[in-house]
Design brief:
There is one protein chain. Strand 8, helix 9 and strand 9 form a beta-alpha-beta unit. Helix 6 runs parallel beside helix 7 and helix 7 packs parallel to helix 8. With 394 residues, the protein is of the alpha/beta class. It has 2 domains: 101 residues, Enolase-like, N-terminal domain (Enolase-like, domain 1), CATH 3.30.390.10; 229 residues, TIM Barrel. The two termini are 30 Å apart. The model has no long low-confidence stretch (mean pLDDT 98). The chain is globular and about 65 Å long. 52% of the residues are buried. Bound molecules: the ligand C[C@H](O)[C@H](O)[C@@H](O)[C@@H](O)C(=O)O and magnesium ion. The site of magnesium ion has 5 residues, from loops. It catalyses: L-rhamnonate = 2-dehydro-3-deoxy-L-rhamnonate + H2O. It holds the Pfam family MR_MLE_C. Its EC number is 4.2.1.90.
Length: 394
Amino acid sequence: MAMPTIKQIRAYTVRGGGADYHDQGEGHWIDSQISTPMSKYPEYRAKRRSFGLNVLGTLVVEVEASDGHIGVGVTTAGELGAFIVEKHLARFIEGQKVTDIEKMWDQMFHATLFYGRKGIVLNTISGVDLALWDLLGKVRDEPVHAMLGGPVRDELIFYATGARPDLAKDMGFIGGKLPLKHSPAEFDAGLKANLDQLADMRNRVGDDFWLMFDCWMSLDVEYATRLAHGAAEYGLKWIEEALPPDDYWGYAELRRNVPPGMWVNTGEHEATRWGFRMLMEMECCDVIQPDVGWCGGVTELIKISALADAHQKLVIPHGSSVYSYHFVITRHNSPFSEFLMMAPQADEVVPMFTPLLEGEPVPENGRIKASALDKPGFGVSIAADADLARPYEH
Ligand SMILES: C[C@H](O)[C@H](O)[C@@H](O)[C@@H](O)C(=O)O
Ligand SMILES: [Mg+2]
């Protein structure tokens, strides 16, 4: 059968949750006080939106094929991403066969190398890549996981990220990841408060439930080492993203410093096979956590995951909803997943990219059955009432 070609690519922006899940209103746990590299500035300590964590917003990429099928991908990139798609990447996509994803990815990456490499450009390339895989699945009438080798297990198992690991335990998740509240700028009193919070949570959840700290790039090796040793008493399973992404040397040192058995995990703000090669060859971490909407998409995650497998590293993608579920279910070295609790008080399960996607599966009792993913492509569509804007055209 002659494969259709791509007739048009379109880039839209939308605010309020969605793929840019930090773009929330007042009172949401994800915008409470959380330790960040900006916490040393008191004026930027209370809320991450104050320094612009939600400045980008969501990018929605649509690719329409000559046979009428439309593929959709979403990521954190907003208007900047829309510009890159419409003014630069479109030339590598339109007119191409829907099957030629590898070539389209290679051209997008190398054509933007002079200003990309990581960050918003790789977020944008990831968004296009997700749309291309979604389109190919729709044309072939297959879920993405079937094009990646198929499920290796019957269900996805999740830990929950949010302010209430105690409630997450009652909902059937296997663990709870707490955002670290106090930064090194709050000195020993802050460190003690962090550990007191962990101790309280451990008392609430008991011993056979994972507890983790997410430090969102905000610490230094000395503080992270003290935090890890203090947290060992409460069975901290891993310390996540303790340092800025480029401090490979610091991660390698931290990994040597932490108590035996405690994982040092990172990678959500890393991108491409080269970035993850550096993390693994410099012995920075136990588990890599690429975000499929930020690291280069499915096409690059295939390469990253194979490299990790050779290094006997687990690949536990950062919370990226259905876009990573199709990958995780097909990989032996991805035995569990993250679920971000996007309800404002982290007290109920709502779709991770709410309110953007129709058909977004959510864990029940901390699990999603592989069969829930058996729809063409990624099996989701943009909500009919999404207030999409198309800021640029080509
Ligand atoms: C909860 C963390 O502070 C971040 O908001 C989250 O996006 C990320 O680090 C995660 O691992 O989910
Ligand atoms: Mg994290």
